[in-house]
Amino acid sequence: MIELVNVSKIYKLENKKESLVLKDVSLSINESESIGIVGYSGAGKSTLIRLLNGLVKPSSGNVLVDGIDINSLKKNELNFLRHKIGMIFQDYNLLSSLKVIDNVLLSLKISKYSDSKSENLERAKEVLNLVGLSDKLNEYPKNLSGGQRQRVAIARAIASKPKYLLCDEITSALDNNTALEIIEILNDIKEKTNVTIIFITHQLEMVRKLCDRVVVMDSGEIIEDQKVLELFISPKTKTAKTLINLKTELDEYNDNTFILKYKNSANKERILSETIKKFEIDFNILSAKTLDIGKNIVGYLILEITGNRVDEAIIYLKNKGIEVEKYEVDTYW
Ligand SMILES: Nc1ncnc2c1ncn2[C@@H]1O[C@H](COP(=O)(O)OP(=O)(O)OP(=O)(O)O)[C@@H](O)[C@H]1O
């Protein structure tokens, strides 16, 4: 488990000025969880993730990894603890003078994975195979595409079987298809290992495809922390709504226009037809959309509801677990 307890971070600037970039942040990350930390540029995400492996020291508060306050450790103890924590960066950070396989072997050597050269070699080949690069072992990074370089970085980060994997904007520099391939690889790694993934990004779409839980940051604070599925049904903050980025644009709507949001669609048809009969109302579907979130689906429907008992029908729908809101000009899906 990783815990941040009342962590603040102040950077010292020139002219003796200071900048408070994390404000009393507390957060617990459970084992085998995959958590997305999202927010706009400058929210403090990179600072937060760097606190988790001691690359940044807190100005106050504690960072605990498996119960150990990492800032109480001596340098060699911190280095040892870092073997538990793999990190991947936006700009890959590969050594250009080393071949793909040697980049991975170097990381195994540094983390003292095994004394046996052949075991290290076997492991390096295994992880490069896992990220689909078996045919690139002897290439230099400069001969690889951005997506392939990021795969090498993933292989290097997971080679010594870390318990935690920190990912700092690792899909941000890639085109959408390549970014989704990277997410697929991480999902595969998640399935095959118990690694805990901490994924920093401003691309909520990547979090939707990878993570169970999402933390939204704004100006150095955590402003939302909930299951990804719940965030897509009822985001609480404007930042989350904007990051979801699914603004609807209906040309015409009125006081009877509503947006319905629901998890998984199995009962939805039945509930809607029951509601129509029970309250003698009419539904006119204006727009519909579904999103897959992990193994779940979130559905959105924009309806015009007419009849004498609309209020009762809405209460009924809500009691059946369907989120209902009046449609307004800035409604987000
Ligand atoms: N070493 C530093 N010294 C001074 N200020 C810093 C330092 N690192 C970050 N900052 C400032 O701290 C704030 C938070 O930066 P941080 O990189 O943690 O945010 P972020 O959410 O990751 O943003 P981005 O996605 O742009 O990297 C920013 O205003 C940034 O300018």
UniProtKB/TrEMBL annotation:
Its EC number is 3.6.3.-. Residues 2-244 form the ABC transporter domain. InterPro entries: AAA+_ATPase (IPR003593), ABC_transporter-like_ATP-bd (IPR003439), ABC_transporter-like_CS (IPR017871), ACT-like_dom_sf (IPR045865), MetN_ABC_transporter-like (IPR050086), NIL_domain (IPR018449), P-loop_NTPase (IPR027417). SMART domains: AAA, NIL. GO terms for biological process: amino acid transport. One of its GO terms (cellular component) is plasma membrane. Keywords: Amino-acid transport, ATP-binding, Cell membrane, Hydrolase, Membrane, Nucleotide-binding, Translocase, Transport. Belongs to the ABC transporter superfamily. This is ABC transporter ATP-binding protein.
